[in-house]
User: Fold this.
Amino acid sequence: MFNKYDVLETINMIEREHLDIRTITMGISLLPCVSGTAESTAAKVYDTICIKAENLVKVAEDLSKEYGIPIVNKRVSVTPASIICAPFAARSAKVGVALDKAAETLGIDFLGGYSALVHKGMADYERTFIETIPEVLATTKKLCSSINIGSSKSGINMDAVRLMGNIVKKTAELTCDNDGFGCAKLVVFCNAVEDNPFMAGAFHGVGESGTVINVGVSGPGVVQHAIESIPTADLTELAEMIKRTAFKITRAGQLVAREAAQRLNAEFGIVDLSLAPTPARGDSVAQILEEMGLESVGTHGTTACLAMLNDAVKKGGVMASSRVGGLSGAFIPVSEDIGMIEAAEKGNLNIDKLEAMTAVCSVGLDMIAVPGDTPASTISAIIADEAAIGMINNKTTAVRIIPAPGKDVGDCVNFGGLLGRAPIMPVHKQSSEKFISRGGLIPAPIHSNKN
Amino acid sequence: MRAVVTVVGKDKTGIIAKVSAFLADKGVNILDISQTILQDYFAMIMLVDTSGSNDELSVLATECAGMGEKIGMSIHLQHEEIFNAMHRI
Assistant:
């Protein structure tokens, strides 16, 4: 028989502390779909996804009931579309529409992989593909796009960085009726991971198997309550408590991932233990940092608290599962975290502090709204800064930024649901134009030369 | 298949009787019961065997939650593996 306190602890985590499986993401290789024309490839893509993921939603719902743990999102990630669209890059949108239609048919929440990997160089067909992104994101609903523009091994492709500044701006303009919502589905990465189950940055890497189940677990509320229970503990004890909590959460994720993979006839990929906040109170990473003893997230000490949290989460996760992957750490998306939203509204949290935080957390500048008149070169420069942090520190960094059309500091964008709302944050007004217009490649750092 | 049923809520007369009658009706066999009162709150944990039931675990879980609402208690029926996974190394 089980220890009753253990049983009640689990029930409490789920009922009161927002423990959930944030996503079951099925990775599907689309390489077998490549054919000569956009039409035939799009048709094969649609069929392949609909067949492979046919039972994804049902299996997730069954598992959720059987184990009594909510499974919030069901998603699909696919091979970066730029690869399968290479023979007809200018007509890639056909495949984009087919991907979105497949997501609609399956009833899943998001589909990721309208992506390109251009971290070292950008072929003509890749450039053409990337140029289709704004239009595709404006005309689809569930499709997400990500571009990898740098890595620790190859350096930062500044031509791609320059291009992405323009793409982000254009995406915002084409979705101006909705505060630039298209940009919430577009991520620019450095060191992108191939097995990430979280959106908008999920894609199915070419090194992956045919069909894979990756699971993302979340639970900022659980960690926050665990810290609350030991208000006078020193930081060593706190780290230990976070680690133990992360262990339990990851184990729940692994159980669901294994079972889902078996039922869906797919391989069990990884468990990604990321503290992914939602706009609900008590489901916030910022509130964890404040529980550690900060008056507001963004003040001095924030980076140290976040570093400890991120590391302790990883340690607990690694102990719990031998297949930990994805991003695994703490996410700090501004619009999706009530503590971050409030701190940004009060002016306690700015982009510069967020940038410092991204050096020690698992992702980057995420869901940040900036004035609509921010120049493309400034957005490129923000991307370059983030990529530099990722490249030098051997970690994934990302930028998901929304230059909200027609809005300025003091305004707010509201996307609703899990994407939440974001106050417009000020950016530096001084130009980065000349730096960005230089183009070329920032060479890989010396410590990447390990062979 | 073994599952864990937890019943939590304000204490009153006849909770065990109602819950066990409901489970018997569904063909669910009770293997072990542990029950306490924590600060006026009734907390019962049962280990059950659902192999005698005609219903799938997911259906039983939904019905248990519904039954809980009827008697004003929070009732969960969950596959035992979730507790093994989270609390045993």
Remarks:
- The longest strand of chain A covers residues 20-28.
- The two ends of chain A are 53 Å apart (CA to CA).
